[in-house]
Structure formats: structure tokens, C-alpha cells
Design brief:
about 325 residues, alpha/beta, about 40% helix, 2 domains, UDP-galactose 4-epimerase, domain 1
Length: about 325
């Protein structure tokens, strides 16, 4: 039986990845600072541990796993990443985790390692036009990410590739573009745009109003979790090292995204655009390389994933509202 270690298994993508690997017959060990708050882990073993500690990493990497998936990072949505208030923690914690995993994966004889990078590595100067962003893989340099989160991700890409060249670590690297779906953070300040808008619309009355940061004309592409995992597994089964984009080419403005969710909810919603962190003006996955190398690219329409995500978040909101308050 093949073995896999999922770092960040208590997170949104990690939790779904564990389930996919289990469905394919893997024996899976997961590790995170905390379990997923929305679903029990499907892992054979789930360890609570801090991957910034090399002793913890050595303990979980105590055998030559067939596959290691490094998803663990200090991260969140725009309200966490773009304020500048969390930059030191984001860079320090994520870099330590990646350094520990690279070094100890070599020592453990890991056969193949996946690293989840981000579209945030792309230069801000290529994403000023909301209608024509350039996020082709080769456009990453000259480097100028719009956040320290993006700089750390770019550093870690290069670090894993250096371990590949110098120590023979067999790596695969993907740049994720706004992955969303059920069983992810939807409130509390670290949620991302689709989850935040689903929550706001679920909480709003019909013909009510929601707030959206910025002018709402900033554009993004969003990828449903099932498509993300399919891309990850295809990359791991290929001979292509990457980095490669895993994202959708279907681009919408944030205001358009809100209206799509409102239509799914069957509500008429008025948008009040307010000042707030919004990141680059435009971002969309460029899928030429992934199709060239893997003969595959995501194809499920955005609205299909949003319908599933809204249904789940709406149920979470109702449970929260229906909970009795004791004084």
C-alpha cells in the first residue's frame, strides 16, 4: 500500500486531499496545528503538531513516504494577507515549515514531494489591468509580488527546486489560484472571497445590502476544490516538475461574483463598495502550460462550484443562527 503524508491536513485543501488519497487506496498520515473544525479527518493517523519545530517534522517524517504533500502555511484571505499586520508571522512561520520539510524529506528518503505555491507570486506590474492580467508561469520574473505572502511562496519554490537539483528531492510545484468549496473557513477574518460573499449573502435578507471591499471591479478566477485536487494528482503522476498553474481561466469581477452567488441564493442583493484590502486589480490562471504538459485543464463552470459552496455555507449560517444563547 502506498503511503502519503499531508502537511496542513487540518486545513480546507488538506482535508479534501486526505479524502481523495484515501479513496485511491493510500495509507495517509496528516499533521496540522489543529484539526479541521468542519469535518472529521479521514486520515489513518492525524497528528497535532507545529511544523516550525524540526523535532516535530522529524517525528512525522520517520519513514520514506511515497508521497508528501506540503500545504501547511500561515495564510488567510485579503483581510489577513494584505493589511501588512501579519507579514512577519506569515514569512517566518511558512518559511520555517518549508525549510524543515525540505531538509527532513531528504533525510527520510521521501520518494516524491508536492509543494503548494500560489498565484500571489506573480508580479503586481502584470496585474494592473483587470481585463488583461498576465499570469503565465514564465512571467514570474523579474519578481515583484504584491505581498510578503507572495514573496515567501516564491522563495520556497526556489528552495524546493534547489533541493531537487542539489539533493535529488523529487518535487512537484503548483501555483494555486483561489481554491474554494465546502468545509473551509467562512468567517472570522481568514476566509477568502467566495466564502466571505457566500456568508454575507446567506446572512442578508432578500433585497438587502452587503459590503464588498474596493470598487468591486477587481477581477479574479476561482477554482472549485475537486478540480484543484484532480490537477494536483495529475501533476504528481507526471514527470513534470513545475511550477505550473492550477486554476480556472473563467474570470469575473468581485461584484459579478457576488451577483452570481445572490442568483444561486434566489435573492436580490444591493452591493455597497467600501474601502478595504483588495490586492491586485486583475488575476486569472493561464492554463497553456498545464494543458501542454498534462493534457488537462480545469473545465467545470464557476457557478457549479458556487452552488455547492453556497449550500454548505448557508447551512452553517443557519446552524449558527439557530443555536440558543444562554445567559
Amino acid at each position: 500500500m502506498k503511503t502519503a503524508l499531508v502537511c496542513g491536513a487540518g486545513g480546507f485543501i488538506g482535508g479534501h486531499l486526505v479524502k481523495k488519497l484515501k479513496s485511491e487506496g493510500f495509507w495517509v498520515r496528516g499533521i496540522d496545528l489543529k484539526p479541521n473544525e468542519f469535518a472529521a479527518s479521514a486520515a489513518n493517523e492525524f497528528i497535532i503538531g507545529d511544523l516550525t519545530n524540526p523535532v516535530v517534522v522529524a517525528d512525522v517524517l520517520n519513514k520514506p513516504f511515497d508521497e508528501v504533500y506540503q500545504l501547511a502555511a500561515d495564510m488567510g484571505g485579503a483581510g489577513y494577507i494584505f493589511t501588512g499586520e501579519n507579514d512577519a508571522n506569515v514569512m517566518h512561520n511558512s518559511a520555517l515549515v518549508n525549510l524543515n520539510i525540505a531538509e527532513l524529506s531528504v533525510k527520510a528518503g521521501v520518494k516524491k514531494l508536492f509543494y503548494s505555491s500560489s498565484a500571489c507570486i506573480y508580479p503586481a506590474y502584470n496585474q494592473n489591468d483587470p481585463d488583461n492580467p498576465n499570469c503565465a508561469e514564465h512571467s514570474a520574473y523579474p519578481a515583484a509580488p504584491d505581498s510578503d505572502y507572495g514573496w515567501e511562496k516564491l522563495f520556497s519554490e526556489r528552495m524546493f527546486l534547489a533541493y531537487s537539483r542539489n539533493y535529488g528531492l523529487n518535487v512537484r510545484i503548483a501555483r494555486f489560484h483561489n481554491i474554494f468549496g465546502p468545509e473551509g473557513t467562512w468567517t472570522g477574518g481568514k476566509e477568502k472571497v467566495p466564502a466571505a460573499l457566500c456568508r454575507k449573502i446567506a446572512e442578508a435578507e432578500d433585497r438587502g445590502q452587503i459590503e464588498v471591499w474596493g470598487d468591486g471591479k477587481q477581477t479574479r478566477s476561482f477554482l472549485y476544490i475537486d478540480e484543484c485536487l484532480e490537477g494536483v494528482r495529475r501533476l504528481m503522476q507526471s514527470d513534470f516538475e513545475g511550477p505550473v498553474n492550477i486554476g480556472s481561466e473563467e474570470m469575473v469581477s468581485v461584484n459579478q461574483l457576488a451577483h452570481m452567488i445572490a442568483a444561486i441564493a434566489g435573492k436580490e442583493i444591493h452591493i455597497h463598495n467600501i474601502p478595504g484590502p483588495e490586492g491586485v486589480r486583475g488575476r486569472r490562471s493561464d492554463n497553456k502550460l498545464i494543458y501542454e504538459k498534462l493534457k488537462w485543464a480545469p473545465s467545470v463552470p464557476l457557478k457549479d462550484g458556487l452552488a455547492k459552496t453556497y449550500a454548505w455555507i448557508n447551512a452553517q449560517v443557519k446552524v449558527k443562527v439557530d443555536q440558543p444563547t444562554y445567559i
